[in-house]
TrEMBL record:
Residues 9-141 form the SCP domain. Transmembrane segments: none annotated. It holds the Pfam family CAP. One of its GO terms (cellular component) is extracellular region. This is SCP domain-containing protein.
């Protein structure tokens, strides 16, 4: 029971942190999709078994997170999302579009993505987290980045 309750807590935190970041960017909240969770979990398990960081062949959006520690590592639900979001520092909002090293960030806040699934696989020292998104973000059709990745909304107090 403990393992499943801590796994659920991880998923809840993973979702909550996504939605905190999305709110800042004027994007609607994501919901957790069970099918995406099953798919993301299967891929996280595969990555742990191969110890290789590579994308699956899913049609959904996908973010990957990897961490290794010589001492047993506990991964929290916000850790991968915070790491992905930190790429905001390299995203140029005045030139919307695909930009190197920002794809995890843009997927997290991509406005038209509605659902997310997450998988976590660990052997104590190595951690893989897979986030899958539906509909996928990072679509590079003309105008798509401009319409889906918004600058942080700031509140002005009179």
């Amino acid at each position: 029971l403990k393992a499943s309750s801590s796994r659920q807590a991880f998923k809840n935190k993973f979702l909550a942190i996504h939605n905190e970041y999305r709110k800042k960017h004027g994007a609607p909240a994501l919901t957790l999709n069970q099918e995406l969770c099953v798919s993301a979990q299967a891929w996280a398990d595969h990555l742990l078994s191969t110890k290789a960081l590579q994308h699956s062949n899913t049609d959904n959006g996908e973010n990957l997170f990897y961490a290794w520690s010589s001492t047993p590592k506990k991964c929290t639900g916000n850790e991968p999302v915070d790491k992905w979001y930190s790429e905001i520092k390299d995203y140029n909002f005045s030139k919307p579009g695909f930009q190197p090293n920002t794809g995890h960030f843009t997927q997290v806040v991509w406005k038209s993505s509605q659902e997310v699934g997450v998988g976590l696989a660990t052997d104590e020292n190595t951690v893989f987290v897979v986030g899958q998104y539906k509909p996928p973000g990072n679509v590079s059709n003309p105008g798509y980045f401009k319409d889906n990745v918004f600058i942080v909304k700031t509140c002005l107090i009179n």
